Amino acid sequence: MRLLVVMLLAIFSDWPIHGSQSYVYPVAIDQDTVFYVYQKSLTDLELWCLFVSDNSQLQSQHLEKCLYWRFIPAGFTLLPEHKGFSFIDSGRLWVKDFIKRSPSAISFDQPVFNISEVCWLDCKNCYFSAKQKQNFTIFIGNTSEQILKVLYDLPNVECLSPKIVANQLFCIERNQHDRDCAIVVLNFDPKLNIVDLNSKKVIADCGYQQVIYLNMLSDKLGFYIEHMPYIHDRSWMVTLVCHKIEFINHAWKNTKLFKFNIPKKYLFGEERLYESILPFLPRSQKTSLYFSDIKQNESGEYYSSIFSYDLIKDEILEIFTSEPGKTLFAPIICGAKLLYGTVLDRPETTLSSQFLDQHACMLL
User: Fold this and answer.
1) Which of 35, 107, 328, 337 has the fewest CB atoms within 10 Å around its CB?
2) Is beta strand 74-78 parallel, antiparallel or unpaired with respect to 84-89?
3) What is the largest distance, in Å, between two alpha-carbon atoms of the chain?
4) By the 8 A CB rule, do 149 and 170 touch?
5) Between residues 28 and 61, the one the model is more confident about
6) CA-to-CA distance for 128 and 116, rounded, in angstroms?
7) CB-CB contact of 289 with 283 (8 Å)
């Protein structure tokens, strides 16, 4: 048995490199631009952007590569004010302005490793969970001055998946000894870039269920993803559970929403995605979540159902189900179309807008 959380938190660390499975999937929408990751292999990862003048027509639009071949971009994040994006390559943070040809490496004044998802307060200040010693700690950094400092750290506790909303820091705490998990919130001072430790409140006690991801849509509404404490080696699928947390009537409420499955071979081993579980997590757009549930039919073939979940109405809607043999994931809305990623039997020699248009469907 192994812990799934190890896989999630090490997605940008140095894995053994081999394998030949390839994937293409969207990672972000920026007005009239769709960004795609194209994984030809574990040593060949490309970032592409598709410029769409009319969201209902993806074909014949302009498609180009965003970075030189020597980069292996993971953890793509748009910068505030949409002036560029950041990514992680070989454990290092890079920033690419749209008006510049080359990205800039950020060399902080102190070393960290296993950087997780990078979040941005503005175009100069970012925060993330990473390791400096043995624990995962939350750091905040100024990329202009390249200064990094500890924002939140506890002895014998992993501090994970930070989200700063409305001058509050939300994060996951995991006890290193018994793996007990909780979601907490603390007051954050944006002028001093510090948190008030005396203000900490537990908003969800998750017990021994392992929380691997947290996202806050506002200071009163968010969701998190959990799995069972251990994943059996003989399991073909990994089952994850999505919970909603919301502040109602002066108290936090925790509600279990839905389950979804991921084939374990895409998370471990030679056929895994370089970004591991990240592309399979639910995507939020406004107050709706979009996710893929991958299952096997009687013949053992994978098929995928894509759903949306309205967090306000608490309603789930099945958008469509693929034919057998199709693994679809990373759904995202672009105008009147739902875009998604797929597993390729063999790498394409080059991407095309026509190919990407085949991996989209019209919304009713």
Assistant:
1) 107
2) antiparallel
3) 59
4) no
5) 28
6) 6
7) yes
3-state helix, strand, coil in the chain (%, to 5): 5, 55, 40
Residue 16 lies in a domain: no
Domain count, the chain: 1
What CATH number should be reported for the domain holding residue 167? 2.120.10.30
Q: Which residue from 86, 1, 12 is spatially nearest to 277, judged by alpha carbons?
A: 12
Task: Write down the pLDDT at residue 177.
Answer: 81
Nearest in space to 260 (alpha carbons), one of 299, 218, 309, 203: 309
Please report the DSSP string for 308-329 in residue order: EEETTTTEEEEEEEPPTT--EE
- Measure the CA–CA gap between 132 and 112, rounded to whole angstroms: 5
Tell me the residue type at 7.
M
Average pLDDT for 239-257 = 96
Q: What pLDDT, in 10s, does the model give residues 302-313?
A: 999 999 999 999
Asked whether 46 and 35 are in contact (CB, 8 A), the reply is no
Domain-embedded: residue 314:
yes
Instruction: Give the tokens for residue 300.
Output: 């053992």
Question: CA–CA distance from 204 to each of 23, 186, 292 (Å)?
Answer: 35, 13, 25
Q: Alpha-carbon torsion 358, 360, 363, 364, what sign?
A: positive
Range of the domain at 81: 4-11+21-362
Q: Give the pLDDT confidence of 97-143 residue by residue, as tens digits.
A: 998 989 999 999 999 999 989 999 999 999 999 998 888 999 999 99
Q: Which residues pair with 142 in a beta bridge?
A: 125, 147
Sheet holding 288-296, edge to edge: 283-285, 288-296, 302-310, 315-321
Q: Which residues lie closer than 8 Å to 294 by C-beta, 6 or more apart?
A: 237, 260, 261, 262, 263, 302, 303, 304, 327, 328, 329
Phi, psi of 309 (to 5 degrees): -130, 120
The number of residues making up the chain comes to 364
Query: What is the structure's pLDDT at 299?
Result: 87
Res 337 pLDDT > 70: yes
Nearest to 292 by CA among 302, 284, 280: 280
For residue 361 the two structure tokens come to: 């469907």
